Amino acid sequence: MTLLRQTMAVFASAAGLLMTACSTIDDPVARAIRKVTPYRVEVVQGNFVSKEQAQALRAGMSRNQVKDILGTPLIASVFHSDRWDYAFTIERKGTQPQQRQLSVYFKNDLYLRYEGDELPSESEFAERIAVPEDRKVVPRLEATPLELEKFRKNSPVPVAVQPKPVLPSDKSYPPLEAR
Length: 179
Known about the structure:
With 179 residues, the chain is α+β, with helices and mostly antiparallel strands. Helices cover 35% and strands 17% of the residues. It has a domain at 43-131: 2-Layer Sandwich (Beta-lactamase Inhibitory Protein, Chain:B, domain 1).
């Protein structure tokens, strides 16, 4: 029995040493993998309803007229036939997630009123989903004279490029326009 215990102790200590050794290795590949983040899809759900669209609604409009202005409702419940619900969410990397909700009420199939969150105008919405300015950094596209000189010193000797001779075409084509 003591031999079995000694063997188990050796294996346990070897496994412990192997585990600690893995955590101390400074592997550049592992470091690079930790820096890589997965791509996150921009999630857009529902219908965006702007302030201008809501202002275009008039009491007494038919359901089709409301649908022409706001689009198809996200929820048109059988249990609430006099109400359409519009919900909108957008999650975009680098910007705050946005959520809006709007309920449109009908009476005798005619538009009555709407309730919901404060709606942004189309231009306000476009500003909110725009990518932050710090990610719009445009790289410098011209080299300084010093950088050009370094490039010339390190580049191989250029070979003179001979232009291709223009050969006369033996094909004739009809004119593009009728005379």
